[in-house]
Amino acid sequence: MIGNQFTFRFIRDLDDASLDDVLRLKKSRSGKSIILTYKSIDLHNEHVTMFRNTRELSSYLYNYFSLMKEDDDPFLSVQIDHPVMPSILFTLEKFTHNIKRLVYMVELHYN
């Protein structure tokens, strides 16, 4: 399905994409749940979580993104990729100031 997947790239170094952590969201094959896949440079495997509805996903994303404000070793920036929209690159400060709007954008897409 075109436009099904959101990708959030958490960037440590603008010149080295291999250092990025990557969070991907997509609908399950059945279309009844949303799959979150997270790949960190610190982890050797991807972590996969399934959410039954957008309320669960929104709560998870809001809490996770909010904690990024408190990180002692923060990412430099965050890029959002979506197949049918231009990529958006935020500094971490701008990203954390727009958490509610970003989570709402995800909710609208998956509802």
Characterise this structure.
With 111 residues, the protein is an alpha+beta fold. The chain has one domain (6-110). Helix content is 29%, strand content 33%. The protein has 3 helices and 6 strands; from the N terminus they run E-E-E-E-H-E-E-H-H. Strands 4-3-2-1-5-6 form a 6-stranded antiparallel β-sheet. Strand 5 (77-82) and strand 6 form a beta hairpin.
What is the rounded Rg?
Answer: 14 Å
Specify the structural class: alpha+beta
Overall average pLDDT = 91
- Tell me the number of helical segments per DSSP (H or I, 4 or more residues long): 3
What's the β-strand tally? Answer: 6
| Helical coverage, percent range | 25-40%
The dominant shape is: globular
> Which segments are poorly predicted (pLDDT under 50) over 5 or more consecutive residues?
none
Brief write-up:
The chain has 3 helices and 6 strands, in the order ββββαββαα.
Task: Give me the secondary-structure topology.
Elements: E1 6-11, E2 21-27, E3 34-39, E4 47-51, H1 54-67, E5 77-82, E6 85-91, H2 92-97, H3 99-110
Antiparallel strand pairs: 1-2, 1-5, 2-3, 3-4, 5-6
Helix pairs in contact: 1-3
